[in-house]
Amino acid sequence: MTKPEISLWVLGLLSGNILWAFLMNAIVFGGGELDFMSQLDQSLGMAGPVFLITGAIAGIVYFFKRRSTTAMWTWTILLLVTLAVLSISGAKQAVS
Questions:
Q1: What's the rounded Cα separation, in Å, for the pair 28 and 51?
Q2: DSSP string of 30-84?
Q3: Residue 15: what are its φ and ψ, rounded to 5°?
Q4: CB-CB neighbours of 12 under 10 Å
Q5: Burial of 85 (0-12, 13-18, 19+ CB in 10 A)
């Protein structure tokens, strides 16, 4: 993979992660009362650690495999699984 392709992939993961955080913020905390900057702050607070930790694990995979494609797919799958688990627990919290 070339560097621009990797950059676009990472940008796609980041934007999807932030979109997920905006939606979870609206579902769990009822983000309607807050202004946009407060919602952005809460969303980045939720999305940042998830993105960085899964990225660190993908970096470890890259260190051992030396294949960017393998590392990026690992990052994507880890991020999707993590967001799914967090969405399920967030939906349960919103219902109760």
A1: 20
A2: -GGGS-HHHHHHHHHHHHHHHHHHHHHHHHHHHHHH--HHHHHHHHHHHHHHHHH
A3: -65, -40
A4: 11
A5: exposed
pLDDT digits (tens, 9 = 90+) for 32-41: 667 888 888 8
Q: Does the pTM of the predicted model rise above 0.85?
A: yes
CB 90 within 8 A of CB 28: yes
DSSP helix/strand/coil, 2: coil
Helix axes 68-95, 3-29, angle to 10 degrees: 10
